[in-house]
Amino acid sequence: MSPQPGVYYGPDEDENTKDLERYFIAGDFVCGVGYGIMLVLWTSCVRYLWSQRRRSPKTTLLLVYLCLIFVVETIFCIVQARTVQVIYIENRNYPGGPWQYFLDTQYLAINVMFYATLFILTFLCDLLVLWRCWVVWIAAGPAIAYGVIALPSVMLLASFVMGTLWTLQSSQPNLSMYSAQPLAFGIAYYTLSLGVNIILTSLIIIRLMFYRRTHLAHLPPQHAKQYLSLATVIIESAALYSVFSVAFLVSYAMQQPINQIWLGFAQAAQQISTYLIVHRVAIGTAWTSNAMESHTVTDYHAATRPGDMGHDQKRTGPSNVQFTSQFSVSGIVSETKADVEEVTASAV
Length: 348
Prior knowledge:
Layout: H1 15-51, H2 57-90, H3 98-104, H4 109-137, H5 142-170, H6 180-215, H7 221-228, H8 230-237, H9 239-253, H10 259-283, H11 289-293, E1 296-303, E2 313-321, H12 330-347
Antiparallel strand pairs: 1-2
Keywords: Membrane, Transmembrane, Transmembrane helix
Transmembrane segments: 23-50, 62-88, 108-131, 143-167, 187-206, 227-254
């Protein structure tokens, strides 16, 4: 039997509900694509960190952190995929449609796991950005570094509390993330989380751009590009997540159906930003506290003119910045040592 022209075969729900269902499935697709990207980055990071696991306790901590993030993210994607099956296949004839079934069954374990894993992922990724902010500011002194992260730390703690309340309220019987009370908690939670990320992003960018302006002239071109490029600033500050979080928060507060897509993008962007930061730390191209504390070494070459014995003419050459950290650029260190030996030989 072929479809009859002019006959409507679609659902009986209103257009807003149909848009929510469309964007919900689209958001599931975005999460799947993001998970594939994250799987590649996770594998790259873990392989490298595993090979370096005996070098430092920090390497082991990063491995544990990555494995925890990966497990929670995997559970989230499985729950997301299973939710689509439950509401669109197993309960497609529910009164009011599949989306109404989703809203009416938020207390089920699968939906509780959805909110819980999303909340845990966001909190863990916020912790990493807080750590990166502390790393790039510690060179200015412990007091300044702790002062800089004080407000974001308090806001992060407040977001943890609001996120817990949002998760609990959204999973209550006869409630959902779009009900009045859970919606209020959700807006407060994502506002705090976004605020933390914007503040931390701004602090990291300010510090890196200041360091860029101060030391760009003293770095060799290959290292200047690697450490002080725009891409470096974006990755180190996790600015990618902040952009998508703004889009989600605005659409969620306005209860626009497209918030489901922005939620998928924001969740994926946050995980990808996290893995990119860890990847830079693993391969040794991330900023460290030692790198921020490093100083320039100026080469002095002594030359003696014929007939002007006793008067040394010192010429200032290009400077090298020495990065010394657990994940360091050893080539610059050796170059600096060679320069010092050359200066000593010339002086003798």
